Amino acid sequence: MCVCFKENTCLLEQQMYSLPYVLRKAGKFFHNLMEKKDFEAWLDNISITFLSLTDLQKNETLDHLISLSGAVQLRHLSNNLEILLKRDFLKLLPLELSFYLLKWLDPQTLLTCCLVSKQWNKVISACTEVWQTACKNLGWQIDDSVQDPLHWKKVYLKAILRMKQLKDHEAFETSSLIGHSARVYALYYKDGLLCTGSDDLSAKLWDVSTVACWEWSSGAKTQHFRGHTGAVFSVDYNDELDILVSGSADFTVKVWALSTGTCLNTLTGHTEWVTKVVLQKCKVKSLMHSPGDYILLSADKYEIKIWPIGREINCKCLKTLSVSEDRSISLQPRLHFDGKYIVCSSALGLYQWDFASYDILRVIKPPDFSNVSLLGFGEIFALLFDNRYLYIMDLRTEKLISRWPLPEYRKSKRGSSFLAGEMSWLNGLNGQNDMGLVFATSMPDHSIHLVLWKEHG
User: Fold this and answer.
1) Which one, of 428, 372, 423, 379, lies nearest residue 400 by Cα?
2) pLDDT digits over 186-201, tens only?
3) Do 296 and 312 touch, CB atoms closer than 8 A?
4) Helix/strand/coil percent split, the chain, to 5
5) Residue whose C-alpha is closest to residue 449's, from 428, 418, 413
6) 273 to 125, 247, 253, 278, 331: CA distances (angstroms)
């Protein structure tokens, strides 16, 4: 009897304990059904109310909801906020539109953006127009035939390094050539070879890159040009025309047959020593000359004369240029002519003439220009020097961007004691023309001091 009572009691207890459990399960089930049924209406009411709140009230509401959230809700919130706040527009936009937007950013910002992701780096690196423009702004030459879309970012990185070296005065290095036993009076440079003439009765030809030397101490003269009655200060020649021209202290310019040494013509009209002659092919058209014509420029202390030079013997002066009618401003014997522009330095600055019209285009006046002389002039840069430094000027801004210290070089009255080396980089760097000789000058110890481009780091 007792056994049956106990069994019935246990069964009753199980039924009593299971009833609340069943009721709870059923309530939760029906509650979930109501939630699904009414949730959208409830959410719409909440949304309308939320949108009617002020920004401060909205923030307080969000703070309260966040405080009630568990780990699952917070993780969900974090994942969705990252998507909403950090949308990858370069990945979502068409490539052409991405390139258009990138053009408004400066190169340094673009380089920083390349670090965001591989996708960003790929898109930004392929934006050719952006990197070409950046290279042009640095004074770099652009070759439009290069088709590689990733090429110009690499060029820009190389360009920015070289321009930083120039700005920090670290783009050059120095060297010396030792071999003469007496004063070096004459220097001439072409195609990597430096020719030097000395009082030791020798002429030496140096390979600047390897410092190899060839000597003609007793070599036979190939040609002798006799006729000037005063010292000869400047010569130039052209193999195609078989012509050599010379300027002298006898106030004349002589035109010689290069192969025979015969004097073809003597050009008169100067009233001072002719300190510079330049023979160059014309590149512009005017009433007096056409592209392809050979032109001779001769300069004295106050004037620059322009002569037509061809295979004919006789020629007349086309034009005389000066910077002051009363001769109050003197010219330095540093004359540049590239077929389009004439540039000459004076005590007041650099004068640039348009060769087609003979008009003065501009006068460039760097600080303390009274002692600065012109070495080379291009489309982008100019190379200048004085007693202490070698200077590079950006002609677009007319500001000096770099300088390099020079030793106490020899100032010779008998010949050229200094000259510029490679000149093509003055029209814009390209990563290939910034090498080799920049400047050379003879020294009191009979050596030749060289300034060379430093190799890219």
Assistant:
1) 372
2) 777 877 778 777 777 6
3) no
4) 30, 30, 40
5) 418
6) 57, 8, 10, 15, 12
386, β-bridge pairs = none
Closest-CA residue to 157 (of 100, 119, 103, 110): 110
| Residue 64, helix vs strand vs coil | helix
Among candidate residues 317, 375, 323, the one with its CA nearest the CA of residue 347: 323
Residue 220 DSSP label: P
134-147 pLDDT, tens digit each: 998 988 888 877 87
Residue 83 has a CB neighbour count (10 Å cut-off) of 9
User: What is the DSSP-derived secondary structure letter of residue 4?
Assistant: H
User: Which tokens in the block code for residue 370?
Assistant: 């009274």
Those residues with Cβ within 8 angstroms of residue 163's Cβ, 6 or more apart along the chain or in another chain: 138, 139, 401
Q: What are phi and psi of 232, to 5 degrees?
A: -95, 120
Give the angle subtended at the CA of 282 by the CAs of 270 and 190, to the nearest 5°: 85
Cα 69 → chain centroid: 58
Instruction: Lay out the sheet containing 381-385: strands in order across.
Output: 373-377, 381-385, 389-394, 399-405
* Full-model pTM: 0.71
**What's the burial of 394, exposed, middle or buried (CB within 10 Å: 0-12/13-18/19+)?**
middle
- What is the distance between the alpha carbons of residues 234 and 227, in angstroms, rounded to a whole number? 15
Write out pLDDT tens, residues 33-71. Answer: 556 667 888 888 888 999 999 999 999 999 999 999 899
Element (H, E) at 235: strand 232-238
Check whether 391 has a pLDDT greater than 80.
yes
Tokens 């592209």 label which residue? 291
User: Is residue 91 exposed (0-12), middle (13-18) or buried (19+ Cβ within 10 Å)?
Assistant: exposed
Query: In this structure, which amino acid lies at residue 218?
Result: S
Q: What CA–CA distances, in Å, run from 351 to 134, 143, 238, 390, 427?
A: 29, 30, 26, 19, 18
Q: Token digits for 149?
A: 């879309």
Angle of CA points 192, 194, 197, to nearest 5°? 170
